[in-house]
Each structure stands twice: as C-alpha cells, then as structure tokens.
Write a structure and sequence with these properties.
The structure holds 2 protein chains of 2 kinds.
Chain A: H1 6-12, E1 15-18, E2 24-27, E3 30-33, H2 39-47, E4 58-61, H3 78-94, E5 98-99, H4 109-116, E6 124-127, E7 141-144, H5 147-156, E8 158-161, E9 165-172, H6 181-192, E10 200-205, H7 207-210, H8 214-222, E11 231-233, H9 238-244, H10 253-264, E12 276-281, E13 288-290, E14 298-300, H11 314-327, E15 342-345, H12 353-363, E16 373-376, H13 381-390, H14 392-399, E17 402-403, E18 424-427, E19 442-445, H15 448-457
Parallel strand pairs in A: 3-4, 3-6, 4-5, 6-7, 9-10, 9-12, 10-11, 15-16, 15-18, 16-17, 18-19
Antiparallel strand pairs in A: 1-2, 2-8, 13-14
Helix pairs in contact in A: 2-5, 6-8, 12-14, 12-15
Chain B: E1 6-14, H1 21-24, E2 68-71, H2 83-91, E3 95-98, H3 103-110, E4 115-118, H4 121-132, E5 136-140, E6 145-147, E7 153-155, H5 160-168, H6 172-179, H7 181-194, H8 202-205
Parallel strand pairs in B: 1-2, 2-3, 3-4
Antiparallel strand pairs in B: 1-5, 5-6, 6-7
Classes of the chains: A alpha/beta, B alpha/beta.
Chain lengths: 467, 216
C-alpha cells in the first residue's frame, strides 16, 4: 500500500463498504444536533416510522436561535421558542441527550464538542452546520451536512460519499506580535479564494501549525469552509492529547493509552503525496480585515479599500463594485479610517477562553468609544465561567462591553443579536455575506484582538498601533 | 423524491459570483420548522429591491416561470442550510447551472430532485447567453446533455450514482437500510473491538444524567 495522508487513514478506517461507482459507505461515529437543521430530519424519521440507530452517538443543543441575555425569561421570539422546544421534545422522544440553554454544559456545538471530549482524533463527526470542519483540528474527519443527511445519519449511522482530493497547506514561520491565527486563515482565503479548496480535504501542517494551541487550531480549521473545503484537519499531537485528557467523554485508563497510541499512527506518512500543495510564510503576515462581502475580500489593516477601476477583469471589477456598494465604502480610503457602530466578539470561530484573554488584554484599562455598542459572547457556559473566574468579565464590563450568555449570537441573524440596516460591525465571526449579521448590516471580519482595538478607537484599527 | 428526467424551460440568468446561501435564503427564516412552502422567502432581500431599482430576475417575466437558473461561480457557497435548496425547488427551479458550487449546497441538491450542473467557461457562457436571450433550454439527464434553441448540444458530467438516484427518485435511506444493514452491523462490531473508545460507555454517558436538574 502506498503512503497515506491523515485524511486517507481516517477515511479508510470508516469504510463500511465500497460501491462499484467508486463511492464508499462511511460510518459516522459522532453527530452534533442543533435546532436549525434537525427538525425536518426528525420529522422525516417520524414520517417513515424510523428510529435512531445509535442514540449514544448524538448530542443535541440549541445554539443558533437562543438569546444571549435574559435567559431566565421565556424566549421573546415565538418562532425561536418553538424551534428550541422542538429540539428538546425531539431529543426526548428519540432518547438522545439534550443540553438546555441554562445548563453549565451549554454552548455552540463547535465549542462544546471539544470541551466534552465528544470530539476525538480519528473519529468521523458530522453536524448540520457548515462549520463542523472546526473539529478537524483534532484530526477528526469532520464536515457539515444538510438536513437530509442528518436524517440519514440518524437512521443508518452512515453516509454514502466519494473521497475528496487531498490538499496540504504548509504554514511555516513564527507569528509576529499582534498577528493571530485568524489573520493566517484570512490571508490563506485571500490567497486561494473562497473556491480554493473546492473538491479537496485540507490538511494544515508545518511548524506554525505545530506551534498553535488547540483553540487556535480550531479557529484555523473552522474557516476551511470559507476556503471552499468541507474538511480541514490537523494531525493529532501532544498538544491534542493534553487538551483531551480528562475530558468527560474522552477515553480513560487503559483505553486512553490505547487511544493515544492509535492517534499517533494517524499522522500523514512522510512520503505521502497530495493532489495540491500551498505554502504560506506566517512570519510575513499583518493583522487583516475583510472589506467586502466574501471572506476572500480581505487585506492587511495597513491597506486601502480596493478600487474597482484598477481591476482589468470585468467580472472581478463588477464583483468589487457590488461589494463596495453594499458595504458603503469609497475606493482608496485607508482601512484604518473606517468608523464602526458595533463590535461582536464571539462565534464558533473566536469565542474560546484564549480569544477572550487576547481581547481582554487589549481592552484592559481602556473605554469603548462613545459611538460603539460592543458585546462579548462566550462560546459556552464553560468558557463564560472560566472567564469570570479569571476576572475577564469585569475587564470587559468596566470598559463598556456587554457580557452575555453562550450562543451563536450575532454571527447569524436568527436571534435577538443582529445589526440594523447600514450598521457597521467589527466582528470575530466567519462570514461577511450580505445580511449575514442582519438585513443591510455590514460586517468586517477580524481577530479578537483587532475587534477589541476597534471597539476602543471606534474605527477599524491596527492593534499594533494602539498606544 | 420526484424522479428527474428532462426539463425544457427558459433559463433565468443571474450572472453574479458568490451568491451565498444567506442571499438565497436569509437566516431569519431558518426559524421555520417546515421544508415545504419556503419559495416565498427565496432570495428574500433581492426580491424586494429599493424603490426605482429593477425587479429581481425571478420576478421579471418570462423568468418568473423559469425552471432553470444560470448563475456565476460559487453559487450556494456558505452555510449548510438545506432550506436554500428547498426554497429553490418550491419556487419551481429544477436545474442550476454554474461554473462552480458551494459543496454542501451541491450535495443537498441531489437529495431534493434538483440537478446542479457544473460547466466550463465556454459552455457556461453559451448557456448564459441563451438565458439572457430568453431562449428555451433543454436539460436531458439520461443523455447528460443540454440542448440550446439553435440545436447546439452541450454535454455535462455527473457522478453515476447521483445520476441514477435522481432518475429514479431514489430513497437513499431506505436503500441503505434494505441493502447494507448487515455490513453496518459487522462494521460496528469490528470497530468496537479495535477502537472501543469510539463507543461511549454507560459510565461516560452518565455525564448527562443530571441534564434536567442542573443550572449554570
């Protein structure tokens, strides 16, 4: 057998059977269930009188539709209340765990999966949510699926899939001060485009990846989908094992030792060949800001708003012009002069304890600008409690931030936290699509440190220059 | 699922890149629990243009009856929401033609009787011109061929399994349960022996025993 990649190995270990057309029936070990993509899947089971094959392989939690304040009161939005209670009743009916919004284990699916140790190296994990690629940070084969595929997982614990091509992104060099993993992934997407990873499963490798914490690796893999790939993986190593050891659902005792030995064997073989290789020297990066309406449209904060007139390709010119019209930006304006109205620190990309520590460090002893409304939304109750134990909530509150309960919040405009038309937001989330944070809202993507700096100065700001 | 064979219709041109699933089906409508009747929220913002702006292509006769949509690259990029596909299908769209698709959107199409076709630049350009001219376009899945009004035929590639599933309107879950149940059970037994930690023990699952009583 020829040399194998991490992706090849995890795939091969999950092939139930291979079909003549080259597709495989893949076994799915873990399924995270949320309120938005599951109701139709559960309804499909009921309509066909089908059951859940392995109730122990699913964990459910409502994250998208839940409000992030006044959690002691009934949900103000009737539709949201109905959606959340539907998940709870479906979980009850089919016998899978449901984590209520006021539980200490509540949070965004992609934050709590790892916290629980539900996410494991070498496992296959899916969720009806495109940012499921986050879990690839552990060396899991994890990808987002639609509701019909959720129904298929419930009923069969399998999916019929064709293997993707293999792509490696080599990240080398040391990150300069003020530059974070968010800037790496934005730079990569800027380089290869939102379709750059289409048809490929990405493996992130190189010295810069080895140096990243687990939480930073999750931020990296989280935005693989923004580069067009459903899958982004990092080979498990000592950092991974140290993170997982002692987690409630992680193996323990003799199982732990056997698991670690197995996980060590998953790394890509030295002579394995990828269909595509991309290299990026992270030591040359600056903090980055998105200026348009796709994550690809981002630049170093030291840059200027692009001028469509300078673009020779007519379709690209039209694309830039459309983005600038939606974003209300003039060509040539320095990015660091763009005033903002709102700041959102949160989302499955950047709501973990390290993100909040980075932001709090920038905020400490300073005040949110008078024209800005800023919120911090911890990704889970666990993150919130940890931050409160460290006094980070006090730092944010003293500066004028609101401190919220866990949820997807302002990353997706389907709960109370959203932008009004024309409002401009410095956001640590993952998508700057038209209307993503609210109808007519304008999103600039950036790291938690950069969002914190923007909150203080009231405009997009190079965190390295904040005196 | 309704079988797909051929579609002959005028094709609505949407020559834009990166039409993401938030544009196709804005997030606030994801609070609905249904998969039927979502066509009324399809392209919700685009279909309510500012005063004086031209109406959206799907509200401009004759394209309001189009069953084919021809778009720029990266259509359906973004979120996994299958509502984007349900809404297109409910509106009456049966085929989407683009140079490239968002991957989750692409696989969601096949589970709902919608055919996404990837074409190269020249072929895509020819279909887009036919769409803009308001000409009828025929899509024949059996023959894997698009025929334009002038008789020009354009072949397209499609995965053989997905083609068959669309042609038959296959219930994939039913097929797996009927044909592969023994293989799945055998796999589970092998896996439980080789990597037991992938199956949560009763003791581990007891972590959730207090879910109904605890408060943060």
């Amino acid at each position: 057998m020829s040399a194998l990649t991490l992706y090849d190995k995890v795939w091969r270990q999950h092939v139930v059977k291979s079909y003549e057309d080259g597709s495989d029936l893949i076994y799915i070990d873990r399924h995270l269930v949320q309120e938005v993509s599951s109701p139709q899947a559960f309804a499909g089971l009921v309509a066909q009188n089908r059951t859940i094959r392995r109730p122990d392989a699913h964990v459910s939690v409502a994250d998208h539709a839940v409000p992030t304040r006044h959690r002691d009161r009934p949900l103000p939005d009737g539709l949201a209340a109905r959606q959340v209670s539907r998940l709870e009743s479906n979980a009850e009916r089919f016998g899978i765990p449901y984590i209520p919004m006021n539980d200490r284990r509540h949070g965004i699916v992609h934050v709590i999966g790892p916290e629980l140790g539900f996410t494991l190296p070498g496992a296959t994990l899916v969720c009806g949510d495109s940012h499921t690629c986050t879990h690839g940070a552990f060396g899991a084969l994890a990808f987002g699926i639609g509701s019909s595929e959720c129904e298929c997982i419930f009923a069969t614990q399998t999916l019929r899939q064709k293997k993707q091509k293999r792509m490696r992104v080599m990240l080398d060099g040391a990150l300069p001060a003020g530059v974070t993993v968010k800037d790496i992934i934005l730079a990569l997407i800027g380089e290869i485009g939102t379709g750059g990873g289409n048809g490929h499963a990405i493996e992130f490798a190189g010295s810069a990846v080895r140096a990243l914490s687990m939480e930073a690796r999750m931020t990296l893999c989280n935005m693989s989908i923004e580069a067009g790939s459903r899958v982004g993986m990092v080979a498990p190593d000592e950092t991974t094992f140290a993170y997982l050891k002692g987690r409630p659902l992680a193996p323990s005792g003799a199982d732990w030792d056997a698991a670690v030995a197995h996980w060590r064997s998953l790394a890509t073989d030295a002579d394995a060949v990828f269909d595509r290789e991309v290299r990026l020297d992270v030591s040359a990066l600056s903090p980055r800001i998105s200026w348009g309406t796709t994550p690809e449209e981002n630049l170093p904060i030291t840059g200027r708003v692009p001028d469509p007139a300078a673009e020779s390709d007519p379709s690209r010119r039209a694309r830039i012009a459309r983005s600038l019209a939606y974003m209300g930006l003039e060509p040539g304006k320095p990015l660091a002069e763009i005033p903002i109205d709102r700041v959102f620190i949160g989302s499955c990309t950047n709501s973990r304890i390290e993100d909040l520590r980075l932001a709090a460090k920038v905020v400490a002893g300073r005040q949110v600008a008078a024209n800005v409304a800023a919120i911090v939304v911890p990704g889970s109750a666990g993150v919130r409690l940890q931050a409160e134990a460290e006094g980070l909530d006090a730092v944010f509150r003293a500066a004028g931030f609101e401190w919220r309960d866990s949820g997807c919040s302002m990353c997706v405009a389907m709960n109370d936290d959203r932008l009004s038309p024309g409002e401009r937001c410095a956001s640590t989330s993952n998508r700057n699509f038209e209307g993503r944070q609210g109808q007519g809202g304008r999103t600039h993507l950036m790291s938690p440190a950069m969002a914190a700096a923007a909150a203080i100065s009231g405009r997009l700001t190079d965190v390295r220059t904040l005196s | 699922m309704k079988p797909f064979t051929t579609v002959t219709s005028i094709a609505a041109p949407l020559p834009e890149a990166d039409v993401d699933t938030d544009i196709i089906f804005p997030a606030r409508f994801l609070l609905l629990l249904d998969r039927e009747g979502l066509g009324r929220h399809l392209f919700h913002e685009r279909r309510r243009p500012a005063e004086g702006a031209p109406p959206f292509v799907l509200d401009t006769p004759p394209y309001d009856r189009a069953e084919i949509l021809v778009t720029g690259p990266n259509f359906g990029t973004g979120s996994s929401r299958e509502q984007a596909v349900w809404a297109l299908a409910d509106f009456g769209i049966r085929v989407v033609i683009a140079p490239r698709f968002g991957e989750i959107f692409f696989s969601n199409c096949f589970r709902n009787g919608l055919l996404p076709i990837v074409l190269g630049e020249a072929e895509h350009g020819a279909v887009m011109r036919a769409a803009e001219a308001g000409e009828k376009v025929s899509v024949d899945l059996e023959a894997q061929r698009i025929v334009l009004a002038d008789g020009a035929a354009i072949g397209f590639a499609i995965d053989s399994y997905r083609r068959r599933a669309l042609l038959l309107g296959l219930d994939e879950i039913g097929a797996i349960l009927a044909d592969d149940a023994a293989d799945i059970a055998a796999f589970e037994a092998r896996q439980k022996a080789a990597t037991p930690w992938l199956h949560l023990s009763r003791e581990q699952l007891s972590h959730f025993d207090d879910l109904r009583t605890s408060e943060a």
